[in-house]
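comment on this one:
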Amino acid sequence: MAPKFQIKAFQISSLVKNFIVISIVSLSFLLVFFSKSDLYLINGIKNISSSVIIPITRIISAPLNAFSNFIDEYNQFRSLKFENKILQEEIIRLKKWQTLAIQNSRENKVLKKLLNATDNNLILIKTASLINRNDTIYSKLINLNAGHEDKIKKNMSAINERGLVGKVIDTTDKKSRVMLLTDPNLSISVKSISDGIFSLLTGNGDGKYLVSSFVKENKMPRLGDIVVTSGTAQIFPVDLLVGKVAKVEKNRFFVLPFVDFENLDYLQIVTSK
């Protein structure tokens, strides 16, 4: 839609044209009115017309024509500026659609991975999304958009496509609170896949590693070993992926979780069959 207001340069040019036409008509009238005897007077008028009126007309026309050209260029500039604004708004709108499409594509991929991650030994209760989180030195908690109404109960496990995320510690009708594995108040019973070494892991307080608080028979897993839930405590289902041994000391070892706790989107609330 073009701008409603626009200066019309031809209106200015028409003034000059009207002035010239009126001058010519007036001179023609005088030529008809005067007789041949007044030839001297007529010639005088002609000379005046040639030496006065025409130069005056040119003097008047020059700035008016220049101004008319300026107005034309100004109107063209306004039109281009308006079109440029429309194009910029269209680009912004298309970028928003592109961002939304990428986000939807990423969410669909995550949901597909979640479906594939659900083991045959698990019962899927609900797929929920993260509302917000409450991270402090002393606790690592998140809130989900599903609760009692979705049959979620306390102590159920929360997982994603990478492995165990945490456990449900509280619920309301429409929300649930999950304590993450990295919380120093949460202990999980695990075993190493290679040697079957049982131990307890707790959050290290840094939000990054899990550290062993108990190792059965003081046997240490090897660096790089994968650990999974043992199922012995009957809180977490058996064989959920937890992480990989990243550091081994004399009396303890550290595990780097598979889950990226800084980038949580969708979680599945599950329980054992």
Observations:
- The radius of gyration is 43 Å.
- The helical segments are 9-33, 39-117.
- The longest helix spans residues 39-117.
